[in-house]
Each structure stands twice: as structure tokens, then as C-alpha cells.
Amino acid sequence: QLLGVTHKDWVTHIQTYTRSLDMARAYMDMLDANYKDSDKYFHARGNYDAAQRGSGGAWAAKLISDARESIQTGVSGQGAEDRAADQEANEWGRSGGDPNRYRPRGLPDKY
């Protein structure tokens, strides 16, 4: 035990952190790419990458995605149709679907 936290608790916190990094990496890549119609691809990819780390990854991806959509709705004025499309891409990636389904033509290979 360190600082009142067991080894198992530390491992759980570290795993949750690494899963959230998958989501952050996809978001940063989306900003870097700044590519038309790539939003859904990066939604699917972030969720896919996090979910590949196991059920905890899928849980973290859902939590982060739902929070992001809730926040964006208030900030960006995003419509219900776009929110639903984002959530469809999120769920597709989380359930193991290939993110390339949403990949726009011409998006550089590094993404």
C-alpha cells in the first residue's frame, strides 16, 4: 500500500488513465489533421482504440464520449442530428467496428 491505496487500485487508475489517452490521442489527431468530414472517423477511432484495452476501455470510452457530446451540445450549438451521428460512430468503434468505415477520402495515412 502506498498513500492508503492498494496495488490493485493503482493498477485500475493507471489503466483508466491509459484508456483516456486513446481518446485524447484521437482528438489531438483530429485537430492536427483539420480535415473536412473527418470528425466521425476520429470519434470511431478513439472509441475503438480505448475499447481494445478491454471492457474497462469500452466503459471509459462511453463515459468520455457521452460527456463530450453533452458539453459540445451546450457550447457549439451542435444539432441533434449531428450528435446522433457522432454517437453512432462512437458506438461503432466501441463495439469493435473498423473506424475506417468513417474515414474520408484523402485523409493522410498517418491518421
From TrEMBL:
One of its GO terms (biological process) is acute-phase response. It comes from the Eukaryota. SMART domains: SAA. The keyword Metal-binding does not apply. The keyword Chloroplast does not apply. Coiled coil: none annotated. Keywords: Acute phase, HDL. It holds the Pfam family SAA. One of its GO terms (cellular component) is high-density lipoprotein particle. InterPro entries: Serum_amyloid_A, Synovial_Prolif_Regulator. Residues 72-111 are annotated as: Disordered. Major acute phase reactant. Apolipoprotein of the HDL complex. Belongs to the SAA family. This is Serum amyloid A protein. It comes from Eleutherodactylus coqui.
